[in-house]
Amino acid sequence: MASMSQKITTFLMFEGRAEEALTFYMSLFDDAEIVDISRYGGDGPGAEGTVERATFSLAGQRFMCIDSYVNHAFGFTPAVSLFVECDTEAELDRLYGALVEKGQELMPLGSYGFSAKFGWVNDRFGVSWQLNLQE
């Protein structure tokens, strides 16, 4: 039997833009907060002031993020996305507009037969979001 303290948390790895990303995400969702954040100091290994580790929550869901000080040959991929079930069409439209700005449209807002309205974007940081409005 699994331990009661065991948790699974979405973990996002950025390369220098973690704080910018989490601040942006927190501006979009209700019930958003930084739970904990630590930054690299002058002694590294990451660039001073960048995020060594942060925990934040959006709409009650916890996330973790870091700024990797190692350059990687990979980034985010739409094969893993954050799926947001929106309560209203206005909320879906607002989120879509904010997330697609300086990002990439994967599926424009529309009705695709499986819900009332749907859109899929990669945001300006490369994180993939699916936004859905049930019938």
Major β-sheet strand ordering: 1-4-3-2
Terminal CA distance:
38 Å
**Which CATH architecture of the largest domain is right?**
2-Layer Sandwich
Q: Estimate the strand proportion.
A: 35-45%
Radius of gyration: 16 Å
Largest sheet geometry: 4 strands, mixed
**Total beta strands:** 8
N-to-C order of helices and strands: EHEEEEHEEE
Shape: globular
Question: Based on helices, strands and strand pairing, what is the structural class?
Answer: alpha/beta
Count of all domains: 2
Helix content: 10-25%
CATH fold field value of the largest domain: Signal recognition particle alu RNA binding heterodimer, srp9/1
Give the low-pLDDT segments.
Answer: none
**Name of the CATH class of the largest domain:** Alpha Beta
What's the total helix number?
2
Mean pLDDT: 95
Task: Explain what this protein looks like in three dimensions.
Pfam families: 3-dmu-9_3-mt (PF06983). This is 3-demethylubiquinone-9 3-methyltransferase (Glyoxalase superfamily). The chain is of the alpha/beta class. It folds into two domains: 58 residues, 2-Layer Sandwich (Signal recognition particle alu RNA binding heterodimer, srp9/1), CATH 3.30.720; 53 residues, Signal recognition particle alu RNA binding heterodimer, srp9/1 (2-Layer Sandwich), CATH 3.30.720. Helix content is 17%, strand content 38%. The protein contains two helices and eight strands, in the order βαββββαβββ. The protein has a four-stranded mixed sheet with strand order 1-4-3-2, covered by helices on one side. Strands 5-8-7-6 form a four-stranded mixed sheet, with helices on one face. Strand 6 and strand 7 form a beta hairpin. The mean pLDDT is 95.
